[in-house]
Amino acid sequence: MVNPYDVERSFPDYFLEHRRLTVEQAGTYRCGELPMWTVYCPAGYLGNSTIIEGDDGLIVYDTGVNMEAGRVIAAEIAKISDKPVKAIFYSHHHTDHYNGTRALVDPADVESGAVKIYAWENFIAERDNEFGEILPRQSMGSAYYGGAFLSPEDRHHHGIGTVPAGGEAGFIPPTDLLHGDETLTIAGVRINAFYTGGEAISEFGIHLPDLDAVIIADEFFTGIPNMHTIRGSKPRMPENYLTALDRVLEIGPHWLLGSHIQPIEGEDRIRDVVTKYRDTTQYLWDQSVRLINKGYTPTELQHALKDLPEGVWDAPYVVPMYGTPFTTVPEFFTGWVSWFSGDSTELFPSPPAHRARRMVELMGGVDAVVAAAKADHEAGDHQLAAELTQLAVRAAPDHEDARLLKAAALRARGYQELNPIARSWYLTGALELEGAFDTGDLLRAMLGLLGAPQSPVDTVRGWRYLLDAEKAVGRTLAVGLRFDTGEEVTVRVRHQVLVVEDGVDADADAVVELTAADLDGTTPISATTGDVAAWTELQGLLDREIKGFNMHMR
After folding, report:
1. Which of 54, 181, 370, 424 has the smallest number of CB atoms closer than 10 Å to its CB?
2. Rounded to an integer, what distance in angstroms lies between the CA atom of residue 514 and that of residue 280?
3. Are strands 182-186 and 176-178 parallel, antiparallel or unpaired?
4. Closest Cα to residue 508, out of 489, 526, 483?
5. How many CB atoms sit inside 10 A of residue 55's CB?
């Protein structure tokens, strides 16, 4: 669909400068003469890997976003040393930190114990939670916020690298879990692991006292912390960011490394930039709390705290690039107070389409609303133009001019935006409105990269989220499942919910024997005992459709 509303491509003044200072410098950086290197933005993607050479082996902190990045890291390791990898640390459960592992080590060496993989004790639980139950929504969010599906002309950096449009996952599960701050010695290298939990509740950093270095993962970026990600996440804890950064200041290292920065050298430089970074983090949290306690709503917080505090801008670190105030501060309200602003009209609002139709009617009809939006767009108020056309699109989804004008307004708003995540969302939204892609294609591309491998029983436990409650009205059944792994469960449907119990219960309507491959719902199953129709009925109640959905045409 050709959009008649031309919007000139542009970038805020600092946007391209940040790219020059950061992602255009992808490569491998050694920390002086120390046996420590950062592979920065491997394959151009976000997600560094740090390599430490010990007496008889290598230690790797994070392995990249996918196998393509992992192969780049492996090639760089081969240039550094022919010593074997002895240990890998997964800094936290986000996928850009562990999906290149199979390119670095043989899974058989991990299984034999020749290679250990360390993670924090809640790594698996947090990974399964964030990229398990709500994986389709996370995948769609990642497609919109990463910019990977934009045209080549519009594709840009993510503030800390570029986001891939999917790719092969090379995750190997951790072998050793850390349960608290701990000192390890691996290949003769002393490592003090310490909990941080800011960017992810499973996150930890490491202090290398003999190298006078700290690796702080995602608690310090080229850009202020992304204390809320618009792709969707549980609330992130500002105090955890502060504790992590205070730990860096307490240690006072000569080298600071991270999963999205080039190595920073010098105690004074590190102290200065980390202090500004942590104080900006505290400012956004503290002032949000102050204003929340004065009755400010999320939107009011965004406008009150839209700028960084005076005097802290320090490129390329303390800038509103990866994180930015206007995407952060409203989450402090919704995450710590409620989705409810306090206005009773929001307790159970009218359906959006119903409200839009009435509003548009009062405004003189769809054409009148679109005409007003055109005037605002031409006057440079692209935000208001987008808001007006949103009413028109909801009131009349087939109104092509409304959709194209909204797309143009979003594109113009996106070109104004310094924050690359928001810029990606605006520009991808414009493409959606123009029908430039199939949202299902976006979803499928990201599912394979973000999805966590599951055991057969874990897969079955996830069926509770696939149950089509309308189909399950009045249905009651129980099916026992025996897997070739030796695991046994009973799946019950009752009261329009699906419950999974350990073991096979005697009252099961049917008991079936199956493998993990049989769980796709397409393989014919013979009941070991009972009525196989119970299994068929159960499969018919599950909503297995993988379907993209719109963010802007609703």
Report:
1. 181
2. 55
3. unpaired
4. 489
5. 11
